Amino acid sequence: MEAAKQLDELLSRGVRQFVVCGGARNAPILTWVAQIEGAEVYHHFEERSAGFFALGRTMVTGEPCAVVVTSGTAVAELLPAVIEAYYQRRPLVVLSADRPERFRGTGAPQAIEQEELFAPYTDNKLSFWEGLGPLHLNLPLEEEENLGPPSCLEEYIPTVSSFQVATLAQWLQKGIFRGLVILVGGLDEQDREEVFYFCQNLAVPVLADATSGLREALADLSLGDADCLLSENPPGKVLRIGEVPIGRFWRDLETLVEVEVFSLTRTGFSGLARESELVIGSPARVLKGLGEVEPVGDVLELLPLSRQRTHRINELLEAFPDSEPGLVRELSLFATQADSLFLGNSLPIREWNDFAQREQPMTLVRACRGANGIDGQLSTWLGTSVEEGEAWALVGDLTTLYDLSAPYFLKQVTNEKRVLVVLNNDGGRIFERVPRLSEMNAQVQTWMTTAHGRNLAHWAEMWDLGYLKIRCREELDALDNLSDRMTVIEVIPDSTQTADFWARLKQK
Ligand SMILES: Cc1ncc(C[n+]2csc(CCOP(=O)(O)OP(=O)(O)O)c2C)c(N)n1
Fold first, then answer.
1. Which of 143, 204, 322, 353 has its CA 20 to 30 A from that of 293?
2. Could you say which of 122, 140, 158 is where a domain stops?
């Protein structure tokens, strides 16, 4: 199909958000985008960042967002964002300009094998695309091609997919031995209320990730950070709702094969390499369809044990206030003033889950848990928070170093009050939590943690961002007076206190 026709069809599929990147080959597409009435257009020079920002737009709007790139390696830069979109099932669209077919395989300038470059992660033809994952349209264009003005064809109405609630209803009502536990992973905003009432009505213990938006609201049923308690006292059944849960217990389920697992997920990924059941659909829609359910069986008596553990954690956070967990707890008190929070992969999302305050609800908490990458996190965050007033992110230092050009987007977001908290523990300290690391030789440990000894002051200055360095709890008071522009809060935890905190938590 000719390029102009494909682009018009894309409009009929509701594509109105674009992130465009510079280049000559894609100039006809840029000219075409500029003529679309009511289009929301962002721009960046770096395609990797553009791809993640576009992913962020799809995450919050539920609508497709197209990235427009020129030919050559520019297209390849989008692979990480496409993969993340695939595992999150987001409608990220890649519009790549290509040199005409006769150039394929010739080695001519900026001519690479672009056709189906992202297979198996994308649909490559509009007719196959249901808007539930990424799409790649590769458009061969002649040097002076004119795509003409956009014309919107008849609106495409997608078929609403059906789902099966009966299997879930039966599973819930089958006898429960050693209790049922609900694990709530990341949820889209529109699913949260229904999931909340479902958990309240069932009144069984719940482990809710921060990205569910229900971590604090379900505090009464919550097992706190009881991942280890669950692994030691496994329930008979686990119902997972939403994204794949973050904590250790989910991974342990891989070998706890006697625990029956049922996943209710929008993405359709079971998240386990063992046998489990699955229903695919928006959690809110499925739970509405389910109606009232009364599970039979015992209720697992884990809540008192988890309360004791929470008490112990609180004591340790007080004893080691400048440790990484101690500073995360304190930061979580300040972060309640934000409209939204983005959590970077690695330790930030885990430490927030386990140690952030539970009194004040934080409902808009997001993360990229599709492929768990540490790349593109700042760009995704800025893409998700375009319309928000005060948006916070908490990420690691290596995660930040991956995405240094993200602030280019700042001038394009409605409100610039952004607070980027970087936990700078000098490298990938999550690997210190891997039990095997201490037994490895020093050279391998260095390769894994990649300490760099850098700070972000000059990077902040380069992008004209506010900058604060925080080394202890008292210094966090400065967060009460943040300006309206973006501020980088570089938090440098006390490594001795951090090590002592973890060592003491391990002791029974
Ligand atoms: C793109 C990508 N590369 C590598 C990894 C493997 N990885 C997981 S966590 C991590 C270290 C992260 O370091 P940092 O952002 O400083 O956070 P910390 O571990 O200190 O919390 C790495 C390299 C990954 N998840 N994604």
1. 353
2. 140
